[in-house]
Amino acid sequence: MIFGKCGYMKLCATIIAVTTGVFVSVVSVLQFSHFLSGVHYYPSDNLPSDIRIYYRIIVNWSLASCYLYLPSLIECIVQKIGNLCGLPDCYFKFIKNVLLLSALNAIIAYWQNVPEICLWNINIRYAESIHFYLHFSLWIISFLIMVAIDITEIMGIKSILYYNITSGSRCSFKSQQFDTFLLNIGLPGSSCIIIILWAQKVMSFDRLLLAVIWTLGILSCNQTDDKDIKYVARQIEKKRTWMYFSEKITISPLK
User: Closest by alpha carbon to 21, among 109, 103, 82, 101?
Assistant: First the structure.
């Protein structure tokens, strides 16, 4: 495909915007993973009044609950603004994901610690190391799950790439069944996120509240059925067959 001067500038602007969005998303996820690790837990010796504790609990409940409804709200806003600005549909998913991940910073900024009410505090030997490696491993596993499914498709990067490569003729080469699978699965690697929420060295009441609300939210978003399981099994079998035949291919040296 040959780009004109205008097309080249548009492509450069798209690359810069996507790169910036990916950077913001990665930083937001890293900051939130640090927040979920609970390394900034400091017990308070000065117990506040009951009213202040209730205020903190209400704020935390509002933040955790509102974030569960944020995907639908952001999707609606992005679609309306995007349609008004004449933005192609293939950009909507990426913008939605970037905004959704960026919103995690608001939870970090406004989250209210409630160390006065603590369910458990594990002070055994090597607890810090076990806690760190457990969280680190779960985040890696969650990332690998998204890579295996197709992280570029989940984030919406691939649709932008296809749109620019094909001059807007197609936004994706994935099947409709794949889109349905992503919609039904809700959050890829959700089981790892649930374990991270509950695997806390110090389970204060605010972390318990976050774990309960988000666990219920994640489980309610997962609507996979037998069709999705069969679809994944077929895709695994296709990849296994492709890898088998790839190993059989040999390249003869030039004579």
Answer: 101
